[in-house]
Design a protein that fits this description.
138 residues, binds magnesium ion, binds ribavirin triphosphate, Alpha-Beta Plaits, single chain
């Protein structure tokens, strides 16, 4: 199988809380390769592209506001089955119930806000990865 790539974001809550290093350490310990990494302060247009699938959902506007609240670290990550592998490292969407041992499960919680602040993003398919890498590394 050809080596796969995914887009990982350390979202604004992860950067603001100083967890970028801890999250990168988990990714490196798992053995995936960092191909590119950059700090990005995304404008609304970039986020509308990234989250197009969620437009119209109740959490869409709070999600864009949250993602514009500070910079994210964008990572181009490579390895066999890295898409499902990173999502497994990240844990499920809701950090309150994400399994301990995952990034969201160990570092995340419900802060009583309008959107899940869950520290990281990982592409969910090869098609999403190609599209999202184009948005964040253009
Ligand atoms: P991601 O795309 O960030 O890797 O996370 P995911 O697949 O686990 O979650 P997804 O359903 O794609 O949702 C994207 C992001 O929107 C926020 N969200 N908040 N009900 C809520 O408050 C809610 N639902 C989703 C989260 O930040 C989620 O990661
Ligand atoms: Mg998603």
């Amino acid at each position: 199988m050809a080596t796969e790539e995914t887009l990982v974001l350390v979202k604004p809550d992860g950067v603001a809380r100083g967890l970028t290093g801890a999250i990168l350490a988990r990714i490196e310990a798992k053995g995936y390769a960092l191909v590119d990494i950059r700090l990005v302060d995304p404008d609304r247009g970039r986020l509308e592209q990234h989250y197009a699938e969620h437009e119209g959902k109740p959490f869409y506007e709070p999600l864009l506001e949250f993602m514009m609240s500070g910079p994210s670290v964008a990572i181009r990550l490579a390895g066999n089955r890295v898409i499902e592998g990173f999502r497994s490292l990240a844990g499920t969407t809701d950090p309150t119930t994400a399994a301990p041992g995952t990034i969201r499960g160990d570092y995340g919680r419900d802060w009583g806000l309008k959107v899940q602040q869950n520290l990281v993003h990982g592409s969910d398919s090869p098609e999403s990865a190609a599209r999202e890498l184009g948005i964040w590394f253009s």
